[in-house]
Amino acid sequence: MALARRSSSLLKPLSTASSSSFLHRRPFSTDDTTTITVETSVPFTGHNCEPPSRSVDTTPKELMSFFTDMALMRRMEIAADSLYKSKLIRGFCHLYDGQEAVCIGMEAAITKKDCIITAYRDHCIFLGRGGTLLESFSELMGRQAGCSRGKGGSMHFYKKDACFFGGHGIVGAQVPLGCGLAFAQKYRKEDHVTFAMYGDGAANQGQLFEALNMAALWDLPAILVCENNHYGMGTAEWRAAKSPAYYKRGDYVPGLKVDGMDAFAVKQACKFAKEHALKNGPIILEMDTYRYHGHSMSDPGSTYRTRDEISGVRQERDPIERLRKLILAHDLATEKELKDIEKQARKEVDEAIAQAKESPMPDESELFTNVYRKGFGVESFGADRKELRATLP
């Protein structure tokens, strides 16, 4: 693939509302709302729709929060890698490092009343929805303090109060569920949308097209987000899909191709998609992104792609480094201050891991909870169907 060799310019600053204030750097303030206009790294490409503008407004506050949050996500995933290798995390574990700009940009464009549902690469999306590091690491290690009480593990993070309806292990199965959430939003006449996220490896699933057909028939506020990291497990997209232009795959449904390594491009695209979906029904967003780790922790990630390709993407398109350069270009922080933010992220992650290790494993009784609806007096028998083991509430 020519992916790693493709040139990609840095986010270009176009203008600043008070340009003179940036001639001499002043201490960063979390209340700094001076308008900065940046240009997305590459143009949007539309299918059956007019693409949005490449010019995106931001503020020093947002720039710094993007950098801080993405640094925390990156550190969390690197730590999860170590915990898995130490056998403190068991089962499946799919890491998100490299793709942080997608969830960061998405959150900047929507509210916590908009729904998100995704596949099993879900740790950072949970964090973006307001989840904590303690809940994340506890869930990864199967502890009671986890966001799913330690029963879901890496693939099944969940946060109902922030409308995050989880990670799902069955490839593509979350898309019909996401369209169901969008149906509920329209039925209730809510002014909200649902983002149903899937990877390029799931883009050929029949259920995806069936759900999209119904969403289009009923003009549901559903936004299908294909996180195209170019490899479904160990198979390159060009070997798996006759048409890897996933933003066009909806045919009669509009689509937009987005640089998923550019947080501001994602923000602009998601804002555009939400406005479209509320008025006109579903739309597809293809996020052109990249994962640094393998498909899962059992995949070294280097047998079907070269190390030069991975390092090339890191050097040219890394979402955190793009933000670093933009912050330095606007003199919002020094290199040392940004390094300090990354050190603080490492400290917070280490502290959360220590706390998670102290959390106990779920009690055996948890095997019977969240399976049947309460109040039906369900009985649990032994294998011979004679010995009554328990009557569930």
TrEMBL record:
Q: Which InterPro entries match?
A: DH_E1 (IPR001017), PDH_E1_Alpha_Subunit (IPR050642), Pyrv_DH_E1_asu_subgrp-y (IPR017597), THDP-binding (IPR029061)
Which Pfam families does this UniProt record tie to the protein? E1_dh (PF00676)
> Where does the record place the region Disordered?
296-315
Give TM segment ranges.
none
Q: What is its EC number?
A: 1.2.4.1
Spell out the Basic and acidic residues composition-biased ranges: 305-315
Among the GO molecular function terms of this UniProt record, one is: pyruvate dehydrogenase (acetyl-transferring) activity
What keywords would UniProt list here? Answer: Oxidoreductase, Pyruvate, Thiamine pyrophosphate
Q: Where is the Dehydrogenase E1 component domain?
A: 69-363
Tell me how this protein assembles.
Tetramer of 2 alpha and 2 beta subunits.
Task: Name the chain's protein.
Answer: Pyruvate dehydrogenase E1 component subunit alpha
